[in-house]
Amino acid sequence: MIRLDAYERPSVAADAVVFGIDADAAAPRKGLIQRRLKLLLVRRGEEPFAGAYGLPGGFLRKGETIEQTALRELAEEAGVSEPKILHLGVYSAPDRDPRGWVITCAFLALTRTVALSTAAGSDAAEAEWFDFEFAAEPDGCEQITLSDAEQTLHLRYQNGSLLQNALAFDHGQIIYDAFRQLRDEVMYHDLIFDLMPPLFAVSDLQQPYEIITGTHTSPQNFRKKMASRITETEFYNEAAAHRTAKLYRRKEGTA
User: Fold this and answer.
1) What is the pTM of this model?
2) Which class is 196-250 in CATH?
3) pLDDT tens series, the chain, 255 aa
4) Catalytic residue among 8, 67, 77, 126
5) What is the CATH number of domain 4-188?
6) Where are the domains of the chain?
7) Does the active-site annotation cover 67?
8) 99: how many CB neighbours lie within 10 A of its CB?
């Protein structure tokens, strides 16, 4: 029998790319509240990359599953509880962490609540939600722009590979991969509902869908597209701009 201690072992970590939807009541369009895709980042309080932003995450503890590690770190570093998490991939480049041999299991995480205040812990100095924008450039490259009231971070890619990184470690690449998975899951499955409250207006659903997928359609066609996935309720959004809006919920059995 080969002994396990005959092999060198890497440290194992979990990192999470957390997306949420927030409303910008200060920027109405045609009477609608504008909704924005948000990404959660933590500013590192320790080396390596002290002061830089990165993904919430941390090291696997004995007795934990890697999923439990991701959920614990999200609660400890960012105050995010009970998110929807999906496996994204394993990142194992030998030089990805200057501290040594570290592989990370990355997760795509979705939350229905974008908290205005987050409590960071461990090696994270603070946690913050950034506006997330994805754009294709004329030269064939792609760019992710992350911004808040004080700063803007740019990540640039060519053929899916990171060219310009403004974050710690390889987190810029992980974020790109997570967004591509999010786009596919929203376009071809029903993951959009994991970003929505239990009850929602169709217009509140259409904005995040179009932001993520990069598509645009008329409200009538979008309603038809979603007809098999949503169920009308007896409730209305009395706070809707100009007129009340009927509320819907996700149809049971959709996945």
Assistant:
1) 0.91
2) mainly alpha
3) 778 788 889 999 999 999 999 876 444 555 567 889 999 999 999 999 999 999 999 999 999 999 999 999 999 988 898 899 999 999 999 999 999 999 999 999 999 988 644 555 556 568 999 999 999 999 999 999 999 999 999 999 999 999 999 999 999 999 999 999 999 999 999 999 999 999 999 999 999 999 999 999 999 999 999 999 999 999 998 765 556 789 999 998 766
4) 126
5) 3.90.79.10
6) 4-188, 196-250
7) no
8) 8
